[in-house]
Design brief:
Layout lengths: L2 H12 L14 H7 L5 H9 L4 H4 L5 E6 L12 H19 L2 E6 L5 H11 L5 E4 L6 H12 L4 E3 H21 L7 E5 L3 H13 L3 E6 L2 E2 L11 H8 L9 H5 L4 E4 L8 H5 L6 E4 L9 H6 L4 E4 L14 H10 L7 H13 L18 H17 L6
Parallel strand pairs: 1-2, 1-3, 3-4, 5-6, 5-8, 8-9, 9-10
Antiparallel strand pairs: 6-7
Helix pairs in contact: 5-14, 6-7, 8-9, 8-15, 14-16, 15-16
């Protein structure tokens, strides 16, 4: 199937992918008077007296804003808010289909992070959570940090944390196959942008000790100077504890794990062959991975995952965000903290039963209905355990 042509037909035929439907009847005068005036004044009064009652009398408790400014859309770059709308609509229907969570696209016409923050704070009363989407780094870090601090509803930048959760889940299961553990492995990550930074932080939280990050200038280290700006200064403090320098080729020698969130072809077969026995490669550049699946296998890679749906072990954020928000909203969590993200990763990994686990089946299918439920339950429990649940 030509998905590009089919997508144009689908979007044109249906005028997008969303509509508003009512949950209550509106066929009689009594229906009208109850759903709207004069009856609607009563829940308004209740909420005015106790703002938390919005979770009882409105859709707030199961409604997420999918917010973008269109500055980093898919692999298309800064294409603006209007062109980003099809993606935000798509994200909204994924929330509903896989997690039963209502979501609505909000596309903001600004590249000023302070204006994004202000806009989100102004619309926050109508939503139970905020999903930030396709916002370029480093602005995405600031926007999320401020909103997490200043809002009492969960804020989640899926490009960062959704990817990190699914990568961590995949690594948990890949290590079961190779017989290695988080504290003993050497991980090399290529592409320390938004997703890469979140992956690094999450793997450290999950128990990995030795991570080396690489960008287009080579290995990140404190004395490199070139390109060490913004969040990369922070990464220099938490990665590469040995202080090594050089290129990606130098970094991957003897590495147990390569994680790519960069560009197609970045990892050559020779580099893959230089990795440790039982090597794990997650090549997630789209549409062309950092290394071809077949070439990786020929180079001795034992477990391989990509971002593509036509290859084994697709790292797909839809395994994470619907269940994460479903669980967070169910307990009215104030935040989605590190413990909740780790719990989500383990829930995804554990959805693969031991007898089903193999080199080409380390991540469950996006269409497995158990995934979102397992994630939601784990996230809700972690929220309670860490004191961020409010219900």
């Amino acid at each position: 199937m030509d998905y590009y042509e089919k997508a144009l037909e689908l979007h044109a035929q249906h005028k997008g992918k969303l509509e508003i439907t009512s949950t209550v009847p509106l066929a009689t005068r009594d229906d009208l008077s109850t759903a709207y005036t004069p009856g609607v004044a009563q829940p308004c009064k209740k909420i005015h007296q106790n703002p938390a009652d919005a979770y009882t009398y409105t859709t707030k408790g199961n409604m997420v804003a999918v917010v973008t400014n269109g500055t980093a859309v898919l692999g298309l770059g800064n294409i603006g808010p209007a062109a980003a709308l099809p993606v935000m609509e798509g994200k909204s229907i994924l929330f509903k289909a896989f997690g039963g969570v209502n979501a609505f696209p909000i596309c903001l016409d600004t590249t000023d992070p302070d204006e994004v923050i202000k806009a989100v704070k102004l619309i926050a009363p109508g939503f139970g959570g905020i999903n930030l989407e396709d916002i370029a780094s480093p602005d995405c870090f600031l926007i999320e940090e401020v909103l997490e601090r200043e809002l009492d509803i969960p804020v989640f930048h899926d490009d960062q944390h959704g990817t990190a959760i699914v990568v961590t889940a995949a690594l948990i299961n890949a290590l079961k196959i190779t017989g290695k553990t988080m504290p003993e492995i050497k991980v090399v990550l290529n592409g320390p942008g938004a997703a890469g930074t979140a992956i690094i932080k999450m793997l450290l939280a999950a128990g990995v000790k030795n991570i080396i990050a690489c960008d287009e200038h080579g290995i990140l280290h404190k004395n490199r100077g070139v390109g060490i700006l913004h969040h990369k200064q922070m990464l220099c403090n938490i990665t590469n504890q040995q202080g090594i320098s050089g290129t990606l080729s130098n970094a991957v020698q003897g590495a147990d794990v390569f994680i790519g969130v960069s560009v197609g072809g970045a990892l050559t077969p020779a580099m893959a062959a230089s990795m440790a026995p039982g090597a794990i490669v997650f090549a997630m550049a789209n549409p062309v991975p950092e290394i071809d699946y077949t070439l990786a296998k020929q180079a001795g890679v034992r477990v391989m995952a990509t971002g593509r749906s036509d290859m084994p072990n697709q790292v797909n954020n839809v395994l994470a965000f619907p269940g994460v928000f479903k669980g967070a909203l169910s307990v009215r969590a104030r935040d989605i903290n590190s413990e909740m993200k780790i719990a989500a990763a383990h829930a995804i990994a554990n959805t693969i039963l031991p007898q089903e686990l193999n080199e080409e089946n380390i991540i469950p299918s996006a269409f497995n209905p158990q995934v979102a439920q397992n994630v939601a339950q784990a996230v809700a429990q972690a929220a309670r355990d860490t004191g961020v649940a409010q219900a």
